[in-house]
Amino acid sequence: MKVMVVDDEADVRLLFEQRFRKEVQAGLIEFYFALSAREALDFIETHAEHPLILSDINMPGMSGLDLLKTVKEKYEHLKVFMITAYGNAEYHRTAVAYGCDGYLTKPIDFAMLKETLLT
């Protein structure tokens, strides 16, 4: 499974690589990382095999919600999960309206995320 993590905080990469170390080594998951929604869109537009997307909501420039809306308009078959540190009901409503496939709050429950991604 190919998974793209979109977050403007670079240390998120290390966190995912640590938490999914065994799954990556076993070839069950292949991660891609983007530091912005624009970088994520550029990747998706140039790669034939698109990944599942895990995107932070609050990012400078294009937000994760804007990314979600754009992806679902152009590539409705892609699964997009939103991640936020804020329990904001408006973000949740907007994400659902834009077609998100999952909504996670920080701190991420990695055991639950592994189960979701691998089943």
Explain this structure.
It is a single chain. With 119 residues, the chain is α/β, with parallel strands linked by helices. It is built from six helices and five strands. It is globular. The model has no long low-confidence stretch (mean pLDDT 94).
Number of helices, counting only DSSP H or I runs of 4 residues or more: 6
Largest β-sheet summary: 5 strands, parallel
Order of helices and strands: EHHEHEHEHEH
Order of the strands making up the biggest sheet = 2-1-3-4-5
Query: What is the β-strand count?
Result: 5
Shape: globular
> What structural class do the secondary elements suggest?
alpha/beta
Overall pLDDT score: 94
Catalogue the unreliable spans. none
Helices and strands in order:
Blueprint: E1 2-6, H1 11-19, H2 21-25, E2 30-34, H3 37-46, E3 52-56, H4 64-74, E4 80-84, H5 89-97, E5 102-105, H6 110-118
Helix pairs in contact: 3-4
